[in-house]
């Protein structure tokens, strides 16, 4: 399975990346126990900062960002780690997901992680990252991992890391992604995007019949 | 192969002088640009349609009729005509009239328009944009081919016994291009009818346009209009030319940096590397433009954007001199040499007349005396008996 780790940390070493690495290590341990072979790819967002700024105004992904999106599109499991700035997800992380195709992460098991200088930001992963990934239709694990400065020396953090890793491996081992994508459920896809199957075109639709001179279609939304 | 320019009719502040032209000035300049396009030996002038400031391009057929009157060989076209917010009946009438007054020197390109507030101004809803465009075009296609149309759809008042007048010149409908960025249904509709397909091909990497063009080519063949190589493809492009590469960069940079759409974002060099934009000497522009054929296959029409970003009229006219004088003659020669004889040129009125009638005389519809409607009588035209019989 392909594990992808997205880290929005900006310093070196970054505590966000360190948290992501701890989760990754536990995922690899547990995957091995489950008999899963794992390839890990890390997407560091800091080197993409300038391209991401450009992508915000041009609407297309420059080469390094496009490569990161292509990596994301191959993920069977995902870890997203963000620092908390001003009580929110880092702008860098948000900028990245803003330009990611909205159909590349459908049903991808995902661990959410956040770091902060104070435990007062403890809900940012659950309240902000989780809704962001929900919009992208990823399958987030019940346990998210938050680490404030005071958490680094505690066993509580290790317990949460382990629990999140366990949940991710259970979902990945069950191949929930493939099962959901193949269940005959039609997910909206953007033609020409980076998602798996994005170039497959459905001809048996009302719109395609209309395109070939067929009858008018009942609109999904009534005109105002 | 046809070469030309396309404009969206924006009235943009010149970032170097800080001055914004008046609407009157910009409209005069656009006419001058169109005349220059013919003078330097280019084939096509296409003009956009917008219904909100800072654009002045709300009435394309009026402007294009003036252009046609001031030129002799130039083909006037659109970039694009809004198939969503315009009534297809008015498109049929307006563009048939343009076809007559220009002597057939016209075609048009349809697009959906992506400015949400414009839709309700015309009684439409952008959420319905795609089915609206598809339905409207199905109607437009019939209005130019059937003397009398009965029609009922979802987005427009039904028609009973309607005749769109004037009938197209020589009873040959204007050629239509469909413009789209990433909507397979639009490419499918273009392929189904054997119409042309145009990729804006300015603001995004070529790869973005390639997948849809490949799809259109495949479906053009599927629907029996010829081989995929014979599909009618047009591309946009953007160039700024100077004698030397350095001079082109220096002169264009202040305009690029503050251009609408991509300004204040990527560096010009990065944007030129990632998108079809070329900024450089005539040879550099030639080289980059030749890569389009490698990416998309032989194609029929290349339009350049030259009058945007607040460039002053003097610079635009100079760009046209360089484009027509030094770039396009080489491109014509190289691309014509590479193109197999089986790949057709873009249709023109003459070629469409020839295809329909061979050496016979084209139909010239003469109306019967006015009855006020087409429902109760026979044919509205003298050469057909049946009420709904187009003399095809």
TrEMBL record, chain A:
InterPro entries cross-referenced by the UniProt entry: CE1759_FMN_reduct, Flavoprotein-like_sf, FMN_Rdtase-like_dom, NAD(P)H-dep_FMN_reductase
A GO MF label: oxidoreductase activity
Keywords of this entry: Flavoprotein, FMN, Oxidoreductase
Transmembrane annotation, as ranges: none
Gene3D superfamilies referenced in this protein's UniProt entry, alphabetically: 3.40.50.360
NADPH-dependent FMN reductase-like domain residues: 1-152
Record's keyword annotation contains Oxidoreductase: yes
Keyword hit for Oxidoreductase: yes
Protein name: FMN reductase
Automatic annotation (TrEMBL), chain B:
Listed Polar residues bias regions: 371-382
Matching InterPro entries: Bact_Lucif_Oxidored, LLM_FMN-dep_put, Luciferase-like_dom, Luciferase-like_sf
Keywords: Monooxygenase, Oxidoreductase
Molecular-function annotations in GO: monooxygenase activity; oxidoreductase activity, acting on paired donors, with incorporation or reduction of molecular oxygen
Membrane-spanning intervals of the chain: none
Chain segments carrying region Disordered: 342-392
GO cellular component: cytosol
Domain Luciferase-like: 1-297
Domain of life: Bacteria
Transferase listed as a keyword: no
Name of the molecule in the record: Putative FMN-dependent luciferase-like monooxygenase
Originating organism: Amnibacterium kyonggiense
């Amino acid at each position: 399975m392909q594990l992808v780790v997205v880290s929005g940390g900006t310093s070196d070493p970054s505590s966000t990346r360190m948290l992501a690495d701890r989760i990754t290590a536990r995922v690899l341990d547990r995957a091995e126990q489950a008999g899963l072979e794992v390839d890990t790819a890390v997407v560091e967002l800091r080197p993409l900062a300038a391209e991401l700024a450009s992508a915000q105004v041009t609407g297309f992904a420059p080469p390094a960002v496009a490569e990161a999106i292509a990596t994301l599109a191959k993920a069977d499991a995902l870890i997203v780690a963000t620092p908390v700035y001003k009580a929110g997800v880092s702008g860098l992380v948000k900028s990245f997901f803003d330009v990611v195709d909205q159909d590349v992460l459908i049903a991808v098991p995902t661990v959410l992680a956040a770091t902060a200088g104070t435990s007062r930001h403890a809900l940012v992963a659950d309240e902000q990252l989780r809704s962001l990934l929900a919009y992208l239709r990823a399958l987030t694990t019940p346990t998210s991992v938050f680490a404030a400065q005071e958490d680094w020396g505690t066993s509580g953090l290790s317990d949460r890391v382990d629990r999140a890793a366990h949940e991710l491996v259970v979902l990945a081992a069950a191949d929930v992604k493939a099962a959901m994508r193949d269940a005959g459920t039609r997910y909206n896809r953007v033609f020409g995007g980076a998602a798996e199957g994005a170039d497959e075109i459905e001809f048996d639709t009302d719109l395609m019949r209309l395109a070939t001179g067929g009858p008018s279609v009942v609109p999904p939304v009534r005109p105002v | 192969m046809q070469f030309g320019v396309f404009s969206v009719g924006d009235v943009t502040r010149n970032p170097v002088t800080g001055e914004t032209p008046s609407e009157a000035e910009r409209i005069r300049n656009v006419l001058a640009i169109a005349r220059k396009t013919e003078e330097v030996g280019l084939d096509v002038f296409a003009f956009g349609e917008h219904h909100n400031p800072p654009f002045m391009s709300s009435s394309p057929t009026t402007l294009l009729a003036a252009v046609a009157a001031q030129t002799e060989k130039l083909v006037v076209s659109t970039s694009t005509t809004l198939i969503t917010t315009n009534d297809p009946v008015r498109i049929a009438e307006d563009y048939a009239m343009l076809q007559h007054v220009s002597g057939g020197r016209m075609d048009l390109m349809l697009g959906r328009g992506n400015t949400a507030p414009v839709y309700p101004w015309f009684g439409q809803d952008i959420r319905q944009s795609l089915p609206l465009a598809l339905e409207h075009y199905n109607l437009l296609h019939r209005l130019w081919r059937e003397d009398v149309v009965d029609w009922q759809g979802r987005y427009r008042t039904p028609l009973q016994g309607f005749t769109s007048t004037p009938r197209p010149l020589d009873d040959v409908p204007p050629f239509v291009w469909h413009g789209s960025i990433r909507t397979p249904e639009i490419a499918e509709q273009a392929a189904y009818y054997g119409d042309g397909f145009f990729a804006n091909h300015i603001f995004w990497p070529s790869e973005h346009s390639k997948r849809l063009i490949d799809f259109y080519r495949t479906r053009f063949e599927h629907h029996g209009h010829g081989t995929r190589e014979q599909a009618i493809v047009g591309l946009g492009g953007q160039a700024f030319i100077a004698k030397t590469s350095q001079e082109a960069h220096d002169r264009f940079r202040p305009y690029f940096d503050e251009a609408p759409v991509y300004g204040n974002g990527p560096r010009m060099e990065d944007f030129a590397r990632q998108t079809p934009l070329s900024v450089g000497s005539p040879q550099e522009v030639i080289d980059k433009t030749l890569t389009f054929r490698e990416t998309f296959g032989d194609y029929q029409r290349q339009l350049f954007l030259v009058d945007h970003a607040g460039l002053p009229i003097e610079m635009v006219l100079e760009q046209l001199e360089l484009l027509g004088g030094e770039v396009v003659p080489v491109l014509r020669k190289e691309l014509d040499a590479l193109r197999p004889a089986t790949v057709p040129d873009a249709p023109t009125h003459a070629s469409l007349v020839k295809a329909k009638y061979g050496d016979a005389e084209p139909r010239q519809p003469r109306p019967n005396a006015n009855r006020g409607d087409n429902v109760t009588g026979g044919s509205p035209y003298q050469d057909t008996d049946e009420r709904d019989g187009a003399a095809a």
